[in-house]
Amino acid sequence: MAARLSDKQHADAKAVFVQLAGAKQALSYTEATSALEALGLEIKDVADFDQDKSGSLRYPEFANCVAAAHRTTIVDARLLKAAFKGWDTRDTGYITPKQIMHLMESGSGLPLGISKADVKEMIEYIDRNGDGHIDFDELTKALLA
């Protein structure tokens, strides 16, 4: 049911599908996974969308898969936004390395095998503009990219 896709999502999905499927007009599970990746999406098991159990996805099945992946991405982004708001205790729009370290050390401490130096490296990687803070966009790009 491609109706759950916006016009742009449908056009993008159709273009990738046609390019990969060619004359056979179906995608293997591996091809469907690659097509989703090309669209910046992910689904745990594309076989779940193979309604006729043919071992491949025709376009309507692939479109359902794309729609489900978009819904999952939206939910993940909403959950991430809620988590970020909880971490941004001062409501500044960013979290500091000190806040991140506190979050990671609270409870049972840093995860096994993770050092403070590892956390510092992670923060430097996520802080793409180098301002010493992690804003929501930087965190989203690092986690959902």
Automatic annotation (TrEMBL):
GO terms for molecular function: calcium ion binding. CDD domains: EFh. The keyword Cell membrane does not apply. The keyword Endoplasmic reticulum does not apply. Keywords: Calcium, Repeat. It comes from the Eukaryota. Transmembrane segments: none annotated. Pfam families: EF-hand_7 (PF13499). Residues 114-145 form the EF-hand domain. This is EF-hand domain-containing protein. It comes from Monosiga brevicollis (Choanoflagellate).
